[in-house]
Amino acid sequence: MTVNCIFSYLITEDPCFFSELPQKRQLGKYTLHTDITTPFSCAVKGNVACALFGLAVNVISGNSDSIVGEIVEKCKSIQDVIEYEAYLGGKYILLFKNEEQYYLQGDATCSIPCFYNTEGAFVCASNDQYIVKTKKFCEDDEYRAIRRCGDISQAMPYDITSYREIKQLIPNHYLDINNQKAIRFINAQTKQKIVSVDKAVEITLPMIDNILAFYLQNYKIYCPITSGRDSRVVLSFLIKNKAQFDCYTIKHPEHNNTTQDIVIPIELCKKEHLTHRLVEDVVVSEPLTDEVNNILGEGNYSPRTLRIAQTIKENFGDGAIINGDIIGQVGKCSLHRDIPALFATPFYFRCKLHNYSREAKKQLKIWLKEIKQTGEKINSFDLFSIENRMGRWAGQTNLLYNTIGQADLNIFNSRSIIYVWTAVRRKERKNSDLHTTLIKGTCTSLLDTPFEKDEGILVKLSKSTWLAYLLSSYAKFFLEKRKYQRRKT
């Protein structure tokens, strides 16, 4: 069995061969090895060049045809590119050359992963195993121990991998290729001016429309529906834009016919006269597992995530799915709610990382120090959600979907959208005010169907106050740590 990768690449000085990356393109001294499906464009003007790999659209104008041309025309430095990229949305990487200086920047959440080596001749790739196989690196004992102190579905801290010589580019950083170093750029040099929910929706709603319209030009669209608010917002935009799309819900083994994530989507789609399919998890075949193991490395990914990805691929592989990430992580502060900034510590973030090693805490301390030193004023709760939860945790999911060839897109993936939302008070965001207001501005009737309700007294209690949520986060961490240690003995 052969998988057809998408959004997959390798950048090297010397040409090499990976069967799933047959396309070879040149930008200056670097060869870009890419899959055959993902869009690619390049422009050159004098000593300035720019390559765009993936899908990008200007969220203000809706333009997607002349992006690389505009970059080489308007941008004379990487700082110019960063300012320009703030108004892009989609799923992409930008490779920029000025004279003999080379830089790489990902999209707002690095939804196409970028791994790079910090020693030896430069190599950069969407999958760290391409670098491992090219450079013959071996896992580092200390970093491998961090990786093993948490479930494989959870992310590593900060930008480290199991290989000391390989790091992952995280959001709000660009890669200085000449020096093989990631450099943080600042989204807010001063404390953000508070924006009302209504104003945030007024600003970002047309931007989301432009990203969605761009996706609709390129893909047949499928919309996953759950009982929650995130997917409801995505659905509201599809309806507003009169898109042709189908809805679906996956029934996992732990679900039954009374599960909210099963009952509510069926009821919702029936009320709105929408096509809806209920599908069950497939059994992943041995040939597919062998192929994914060959590309990603055995034990380097979550089997459950592969099962879900393949379920989507077998049922909806002729199009792209649109997920509700970002609006949950940032728009709803789902990971931190309104916990005061005083508690944004390495210890707290390790709880949210679900990693039980002391070394993970050390890496998070380095991450927080970097934020402080650069003067970034976006609060670190939101930055953790964007850089770790989206950039690394969701990045693992993106990598797996890309590997088997299933397009997974996001209509909120732009810094122009995300950092308007971070300016809304977290007390308002945690109550899903952004969600409700966006739905009112797109398809109000979707609010007639109730959302999921928290089940169990402990869940309700944990969300009753910020202090209850903080304490429950610590309690959950120590309980899970104890279970983890028992499994290891």
Protein topology:
Elements: E1 9-12, E2 23-27, E3 30-34, E4 40-45, E5 48-58, H1 67-74, H2 78-85, E6 88-98, E7 101-106, E8 115-117, E9 123-125, H3 128-135, H4 141-148, E10 166-168, E11 173-176, E12 181-184, H5 197-218, E13 221-224, H6 229-240, E14 245-251, H7 260-272, E15 276-280, H8 286-296, H9 303-316, E16 320-322, H10 346-353, H11 358-374, H12 380-404, E17 407-409, H13 415-421, H14 426-429, H15 433-440, H16 457-462, H17 466-488
Parallel strand pairs: 13-14, 13-16, 14-15, 16-17
Antiparallel strand pairs: 1-3, 1-9, 2-3, 4-5, 5-6, 6-7, 7-11, 8-9, 8-10, 11-12
Helix pairs in contact: 5-13, 5-15, 6-15, 9-12, 10-11
Please provide a brief summary of the model:
The chain is an alpha+beta fold and 489 residues long. It contains 17 helices and 17 strands.
Instruction: Give the number of DSSP strands.
Output: 17
- Beta-strand share of residues: 15-25%
How does the major sheet shape up?
A: 6 strands, antiparallel
The end-to-end span amounts to 38 Å
What's the tally of helices?
A: 17
Strands of the widest sheet, in order across it, are 2-3-1-9-8-10
Unreliable runs, pLDDT <50, ≥5 residues? Answer: none
Structural category: alpha+beta
Helix content: 40-55%
Morphology: globular
Computed CA radius of gyration, to the nearest angstrom: 22 Å
Mean pLDDT: 95
